[in-house]
Specification:
Layout (H helix, E strand, L loop, with lengths): L11 H4 L21 H16 L1 H8 L5 H22 L11 H25 L2 H8 L2 H12 L6 H19 L10 H30 L2 H27 L6 H26 L4 H4 L5 H14 L5 H19 L3 H10 L5
Helix pairs in contact: 2-11, 2-13, 3-11, 3-13, 4-10, 4-11, 5-9, 5-10, 6-9, 6-13, 6-14, 7-9, 7-15, 8-14, 9-15
Length: 343
């Protein structure tokens, strides 16, 4: 979930153009033909609202399903929706055999490790904590860009990093107290969410090269479908040990929301809109995720985040905004382009 592209090495017009995915989505339905800049911005906002609801939906679903079962159901259902699209577009999006290891690595990082750790953390902490901590992903992306891509370190980026890190500390510690080993499961959940953010940042950086050669739909769909090869046996083992879950209507609603609106619909909306809006204009809409996600957790789940959670979240958002003002093109473009791929 990250920040703007002020000097994108891969122009959004090429990376996210309508021709980058099957005409079965765009041409036949006329989505792009009538899409103005204002409508595109509205679509970006709507996509972020859909993503913001994922934390509350997943939290509700995990009242019944384990994180492993939820990931299997989410990606299994989404994979069934995306598979016909890939089949119809197989001639337009051929995969080179030599790129299979890279796509497999992205699947492992972005849709197995990342989502497995994130949902395990969300199961232990609150949806509001998770929504606010997710905003710190760009901090991890910037650090990884400095290390892996050897990008220049700027003063504004360092200041944003320090401010954002301080916000993360306040959220985790619940205030300005000194570090301690207490905090129970909520502290462990917050820490797991941070580990998941590191995985997602790695996905963004290493996925940049793949995005230069393949449409985002292909990378996302192959990762979603490929991850089922892990989640299916993992869920089977989980059911064998813990028994078949007896899900409520609300739990199934959470599963379906994660699979269709969150994983499929929001992705298509995001990519259609990016064909008409540059990265720098699209990036501010990403800040809606932690804000709307926290509001939904309060309204739907009855959570009551304390002052430390809210203050820490504001510091994280401020740090991200400060760092992104002069952020390098490679890190920001990777983050923005990869946003829907593992959102």
């Amino acid at each position: 979930s990250i920040a703007p592209d002020r000097k994108c090495l891969i122009p959004s017009s090429q990376l996210c153009a309508p021709t980058a995915w099957p005409r079965v989505i765009t041409k036949r339905r006329g989505v792009v033909k009538h899409c103005t800049r204002q409508r595109a911005m509205g679509l970006l906002i709507f996509a972020n609202v859909l993503w913001a609801g994922s934390y509350s939906a997943a939290k509700e679903a995990m009242h019944t399903f384990s994180p492993v079962e939820l990931n299997f159901l989410r990606f299994g259902i989404a994979g069934l929706v995306l598979l016909p699209v890939l089949w119809l577009a197989r001639e337009r999006m051929p995969i080179r055999r030599r790129d299979l290891p890279q796509l497999g690595m992205l699947c492992l990082i972005g849709f197995v490790l990342n989502k497995g750790i994130e949902f395990a953390g969300l199961n232990l902490t609150t949806a509001s904590d998770t929504a606010l901590l997710i905003a710190a992903e760009s901090i991890f992306t910037s650090i990884m860009a400095w290390i892996v891509l050897r990008e220049a370190v700027r003063g504004a980026a360092i200041g944003g990093l320090v401010l954002g890190a301080f916000g993360v500390y306040i959220v985790i510690e619940g205030g300005f107290s000194l570090p301690h080993m207490g905090g129970g499961t909520r502290l462990l959940g917050d820490l797991l969410v941070l580990v998941a953010l590191a995985c997602e940042a790695a996905y963004s950086i290493f996925g940049k090269a793949a995005l230069a050669r393949y449409p985002g739909l292909l990378i996302a769909a192959s990762g979603i479908i490929g991850s089922v090869a892990f989640w299916l046996p993992a869920a089977a083992v989980n059911v064998a040990i813990a028994g078949m879950p007896h899900a409520s209507t609300a739990a199934w609603a959470g599963v379906l929301y994660m699979a269709i609106p969150n994983t499929v619909v929001a992705y298509v909306i995001w990519m259609v809109a990016l064909g008409h809006v540059d990265g720098a204009s699209a990036a501010p809409t990403l800040f809606m995720q932690p804000l709307v996600g926290t509001a939904l957790a309060i309204v739907l789940l009855g959570e009551r985040p304390g002052w430390a959670t809210l203050a820490g979240g504001l510091l994280i958002l401020g740090g991200v905004a400060l760092a992104s003002r002069r952020a390098s093109g490679s890190a920001i473009s990777a983050a923005v382009a990869a946003e829907p791929l593992s959102g």
